[in-house]
From TrEMBL, chain A:
Family membership: Belongs to the ABC transporter superfamily. Drug exporter-1 (DrugE1) (TC 3.A.1.105) family.
Membrane topology qualifier: Peripheral membrane protein
EC numbers on record: 7.6.2.2
Subcellular location: Cell membrane
Pfam families: ABC_tran
Native organism: Streptomyces curacoi
Domain ABC transporter: 15-245
Protein name (Swiss-Prot/TrEMBL): ABC-type xenobiotic transporter
Signal peptide from the UniProt entry: none
PROSITE patterns the record matches: ABC_TRANSPORTER_1, ABC_TRANSPORTER_2
The protein's enzyme class: translocase
InterPro entries in UniProt: AAA+_ATPase, ABC_transporter-like_ATP-bd, ABC_transporter-like_CS, ABC_transporter_ATP-binding, DrrA, P-loop_NTPase
A Gene Ontology BP annotation from the UniProt entry: doxorubicin transport
Record-level Gene Ontology MF annotations: ABC-type xenobiotic transporter activity; ATP binding; ATP hydrolysis activity
UniProtKB/TrEMBL annotation, chain B:
Location(s), subcellular: Cell membrane; Membrane
GO BP terms in the entry: response to antibiotic
Pfam family, one: ABC2_membrane
Source lineage: Bacteria, Bacillati, Actinomycetota, Actinomycetes, Kitasatosporales
Coiled coil: none
Keyword tRNA processing: no
Membrane topology: Multi-pass membrane protein
Record PROSITE patterns: ABC_TM2
Alphabetical list of PANTHER family matching this protein: NODULATION PROTEIN J
Transmembrane segments: 45-68, 74-98, 119-147, 153-175, 187-206, 244-263
Family the entry assigns: Belongs to the ABC-2 integral membrane protein family.
Annotated protein name in UniProt: Transport permease protein
Length: 341, 270
């Protein structure tokens, strides 16, 4: 059962999940999840709070036993070979799992020793990783005094000590400010460059686009979509171009003109009167170029132009027809419509 | 070839040496906590001073009289009893400390590492035993200062060892509570609820002869009475054998039942 699946292109499967089920009482946290991550790629698991992302990561990192189904990581079965499995994974949880009372260096040295590195090697590895994650100056300070971003970097460093084959990142940037988030993204990209296979959970389409090569969208314990990032983006309507003509009176004529040309994505352009902007759905960079070219050719002056990725909400809306936010379920059916209005 | 292509059918065993190494690394962690946070030793340092002085000066006179002497006789009586108390109090703090650990992500990290899951618990117990020894040493120094007479050093060491053995058994109980209960406050509340009647309904602080019959039937089977009486016999003379074996039996029994439960609960905690 620990056979490694071969994909058509010959690459090994680093993570394989078949029919995974986990209940908490009446709640089905995972309701038959299938997933497969090729070696050396980054799989993004996208979903709202309560979709089962963390449960999935906890099962794959042996912190939780599944109720049914099967999962292997690097060829090891999560239920039958937990110890071997633990040796080849790294885990960075939703909340930085570092010992706040311990200095940064001691945190890493401890993990090194627990991973059976000899003292000398554990010391060297701690120094090396602190350097790499730009934490050398804070090495002797208790991790509790670190900023959010530093703590997250220390957490990442800790998951790298054992040179893992598969790295689990559970919402690695939740709660971080945009600048710190970019720092963490850069670190993750470097790790991926080193050949680590990553399974990343996130609530942000932007994060998935930055880091993942493939995406699995989960909702209420079920996989609702999966595939390459580009493929999915096309499915959910790709990016949105937001242009604001300097003259607000140009808004509607411009919308009509662009729709007439038929060079945009699936949906038609919409006018956002509140901000005086035009929202143009795009499927490709070629379309972006064509739209901008067309506007310029018409001689319309623009005061701003930005492109936006669909939000998780929009992704869900186009994939499932309902919004990502769970609380809807709590609203009785007869009052739901009133609430929606 | 990367590890992704390694195929095996059985899980690896963790060798004993690795277990010891992991436990050692975790002991170091717990000791570093104390260094970073010296206040955490306050209870181990202050409690024995405060309690020893309190009992000797508040109850010493009257209970000493009842014993057929005075305060000096009570000192000889209560110091071995306090030995049993040190273990109890330290055992309770092992539960609260452990519970706090769980509420951070650190335990997730430990549990996702290829280490025997008992190591985390063993390390906690080792450090807590060290704290108990510090508390016991301070209590003995205070005891000697207020007049305790050490008659046998061998007996003293044996009493310390016996108290440590019993404390270890209790620590497994509190570790289990620390894993099972929601927060540190509940562990502490639960601890007090159990410890108070056990401590005072025993021969630790006062002889049980003057207690009502129903209470005596409790104090007689209370393992803390056996521990206190055994320590008393070892440190100041008197019959030892029966209470010694009863205490050892309790310690081994509690450990045999609670250690596997604690490790299992720790392993399966979600």
């Amino acid at each position: 059962m620990t056979r490694i699946d071969k994909n058509p292109d010959g690459a090994s499967t680093a993570v394989s999940v078949r029919g995974l089920v986990k209940h908490y009482g009446e709640t089905k946290a995972l309701d038959g999840v299938d997933l497969s991550v090729r070696e050396g790629t980054v799989m993004g698991v996208l979903g709202p709070n309560g979709a089962g992302k963390t449960t999935l990561v906890r099962i794959l990192s042996t912190l939780l036993a599944p109720d049914a189904g099967q999962a292997t990581v690097a060829g090891y079965d999560v239920v039958r070979q937990p110890r071997q499995l633990r040796r080849v994974i790294g885990l960075t949880g939703q909340y930085a799992s570092v010992d706040e009372k311990l200095p940064g260096w001691e945190n890493l040295y401890l993990i090194g020793r627990l991973l059976d590195l000899p003292r000398k090697e554990a010391r060297a590895r701690a120094d090396e990783l602190l350097e790499r994650f730009s934490l050398t100056e804070a090495a002797k300070r208790p991790a509790g005094t670190y900023s959010g971003g530093m703590r997250r970097r220390l957490d990442l460093a800790a998951s790298m000590i054992g040179r893992p084959v598969v790295l689990f990142l559970d919402e690695p940037t939740t709660g971080l400010d945009p600048r710190t988030r970019n720092e963490v993204w850069d670190e993750v990209k470097t790790m991926v460059g080193d050949g680590v296979t990553v399974l990343l959970t996130t609530q942000y389409m932007e994060e998935a686009e930055q880091l993942a090569t493939e995406l699995t969208v989960v909702d209420r314990g079920k996989v609702i979509a999966g595939g390459g990032i580009e493929e999915l983006k096309a499915k959910v309507g790709g990016r949105t171009l937001r242009v604001r003509p300097a003259d607000a009176l140009q808004l509607r004529p411009l919308a009509g003109y662009l729709d007439e040309l038929g060079i945009t994505g699936l949906a038609t352009t919409t006018v956002d009167t509140e901000t005086g902007a035009l929202l143009v759905p795009l499927l490709s960079d070629e379309q972006l170029t064509a739209v901008v070219g067309a506007i310029a050719a018409r001689g319309i002056t623009l005061s701003s132009i930005t492109t936006e990725l669909p939000s998780l909400d929009e992704v869900f809306l186009s994939l499932t027809g309902h919004r990502a936010s769970a609380p809807q379920d709590a609203v009785p059916a007869d009052t739901r419509e009133e609430v929606a209005v | 070839m990367s590890a992704a292509t390694t195929v095996t059918t059985t899980d690896a065993r963790i060798p004993l040496r690795a277990h010891l190494r992991h436990t050692g690394a975790l002991v170091r962690r717990n000791l570093l906590w104390v260094r970073q946070n010296p206040e955490s030793m306050f209870d181990a340092i202050l409690m024995p001073i405060v309690f020893t002085l309190l009992f000797v000066y508040v109850f010493g006179g009257s209970i000493g009289q009842a014993l057929g002497g005075g305060q000096d006789d009570y000192v000889q009586y209560v110091v071995p009893g306090m030995m049993a108390m040190m273990g109890m109090s330290m055992a309770m703090s092992v539960g609260t400390g452990f519970n706090q650990d769980f509420n951070t992500g650190v335990m997730d990290r430990f549990r996702s590492l290829p280490i025997g899951r008992g190591s985390v618990l063993f390390a906690k117990i080792a450090v807590e035993l060290l704290r108990m020894l510090v508390a016991t040493a301070i209590m003995l120094v205070v005891g000697v200062l207020v007049g305790f007479d050490i008659t046998s050093w061998g007996g003293l060491l044996a009493a310390v060892a016996l108290a440590a053995l019993f404390a270890t058994a209790l620590m497994w109980v509190f570790l289990t509570l620390g894993v099972v209960l929601q927060n540190a406050q509940s562990v502490q509340a639960m601890g007090f609820l159990v410890l108070m009647p056990l401590q005072f309904g025993s021969s630790i602080f006062a002889p049980t002869e003057s207690m009502p019959g129903w209470l005596q039937s409790f104090t007689d089977v209370n393992p803390l009475s056996s521990l206190a009486d055994a320590a008393r016999g070892l440190m100041v003379g008197g019959p030892v054998a029966h209470d010694l074996w009863v205490t050892v039996a309790w310690s081994v029994g509690i450990t045999a039942v609670m250690a596997p439960i604690a490790i299992h609960k720790f392993r399966t905690k979600s």
